């Protein structure tokens, strides 16, 4: 089954996975509806890839018993087709669907599709640098931003990479990358590289002393710790958003059940 993508970068030998009703019934135990299209899936397989589907299939009793489960989130059907393929070992990612796949992978805490989508952006995407930067900034992909800034050699390159917005609106690590790269282009890198010191001959009887980290090593270590803290904060924010959405959905279902009960009581 083709998913409607027409990007010329797609390799003909990479066939799309078939999640239609024509597949063997032993290969699926659930049906999801996205934009009117039906996708036949294995619930346990999707639950292993995403906490969202784990809760949907095995903790949300009402929805898990439906023959067809509609996905209420705004999910493009083509992006969902590619999402399922990534969880099943396939990979036909192209620039037409990449942002949709990134969005639902991050929204559903699905690490495997998310990492594959990030790898596609880094190595195979034909999007313009500014388009890649916009995606990297939106989802805070530090490794992609670092790779993009590494290609900047002139002020003109920097101008073609950055969108027209206030510098203060960028993520903190992006502002650091901008400043550092502009300093390097101007020939005034900071911190100033420390010249290597020739080793001093040691007497055979002396015990070697462990080298003291230089300023660059200390700064690099602090930057790494800061980045880890930021990534942890992002993960916590995603998990909070997911739990908030789950609570909202439970509240909506509870109100619907109460309304249905009230109507029954009025009829009696």
Automatic annotation (TrEMBL):
Residues in the signal sequence: none
Region (Disordered): 247-268
One Pfam family named in its UniProt record: BTB
Residue ranges occupied by any BTB domain in the UniProt entry: 28-96
Superkingdom of origin: Eukaryota
SMART domains tied to this protein: BTB
SUPFAM superfamilies in the cross-refs: POZ domain
The protein's name: BTB domain-containing protein
Species of the source: Caenorhabditis briggsae
């Amino acid at each position: 089954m083709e998913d409607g993508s027409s990007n010329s970068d797609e390799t003909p030998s990479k066939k799309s996975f078939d999640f239609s009703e024509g597949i063997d019934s032993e290969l699926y135990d659930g049906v999801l509806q996205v934009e009117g299209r039906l996708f036949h899936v294995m619930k346990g397989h999707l639950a292993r890839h995403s906490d969202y589907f784990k809760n949907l299939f095995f903790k949300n009793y009402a929805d898990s018993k439906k023959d067809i489960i509609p996905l209420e989130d705004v999910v493009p059907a083509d992006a969902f087709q590619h999402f399922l393929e990534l969880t099943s070992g396939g990979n036909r990612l192209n620039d037409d669907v990449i942002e949709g796949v990134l969005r639902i992978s991050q929204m559903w805490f699905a690490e495997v599709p998310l990492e594959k989508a990030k790898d596609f952006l880094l190595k195979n995407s034909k999007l313009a640098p500014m388009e890649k930067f916009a995606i990297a900034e939106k989802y805070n992909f530090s490794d992609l931003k670092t790779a993009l800034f590494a290609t900047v050699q002139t002020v003109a390159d920097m101008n073609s990479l950055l969108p027209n917005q206030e510098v203060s609106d960028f993520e903190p690590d992006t502002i650091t990358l901008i400043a550092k790269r502009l300093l390097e282009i101007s020939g005034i890198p900071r911190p100033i590289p420390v010249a290597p010191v020739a080793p001093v001959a040691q007497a055979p009887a002396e015990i070697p002393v462990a080298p003291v980290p230089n300023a660059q090593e200390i700064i690099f270590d602090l930057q790494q710790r800061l980045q880890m803290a930021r990534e942890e904060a992002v993960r916590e924010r995603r998990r909070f958003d997911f739990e908030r959405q789950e609570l909202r959905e439970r509240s909506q279902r509870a109100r619907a059940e109460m309304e249905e009960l009230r109507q029954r009581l009025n009829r009696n």
